[in-house]
Amino acid sequence: MAYYVTKLVITAALIVLISEVSKRSSFIGAILASVPLVSVLAMMWLYIDTKSVEKVAALSTSVFWLVIPSLSLFVLLPVLLRQHMNFYLSLTISLAVMVGCYFLMVAVLQRFGVEL
């Protein structure tokens, strides 16, 4: 149980750290947020839990392919916000488009025989 609490505390601390740093410098916050800390932590936790390099490799490959559709959020959100759309509505629309892009990416990958 202590292991799970440790994993939660470390992961949550990183998110809080990034949001606090971003208040002072959006550039430094962006650097920290753009580094795939969550993915690296997930791979570390997965390896520690399973000792399976195959599972880590599969996760890494899946993350690679799914980063592409996630970029739609970072393209659309600032466009909507700069059009003076409400933040929560902009975020909701951007997230919905991103989810649609995920489904599209998975369908395209399946068509080419790539399994996630």
Q: Strand tally, please?
A: 0
Uncertain runs are none
Q: In whole angstroms, how far apart are the ends?
A: 30 Å
Class from secondary-structure proportions = mainly alpha
Q: What sequence of helices (H) and strands (E) makes up the elements? A: HHHHH
Amount of helix: over 70%
Number of helices: 5
The total number of structural domains is 2
Q: Which outline best applies?
A: flat
Mean pLDDT over the full residue set: 92
Q: Biggest sheet, in brief?
A: none
Radius of gyration: 17 Å
Beta content comes to: under 5%
Explain this structure to me?
The protein has helices at 2-24, 26-34, 37-50, 53-82, 87-111. The longest helix is centred in the middle third of the chain and has 30 residues, at 53-82. The protein has 2 domains: 1-35; 51-116, no CATH class. It has 116 residues and is mainly alpha-helical. The protein has 5 helices and no strands. Helix 4 (53-82) packs across helix 5 (87-111). The chain is 87% helix and 0% strand. The two termini are 30 Å apart.
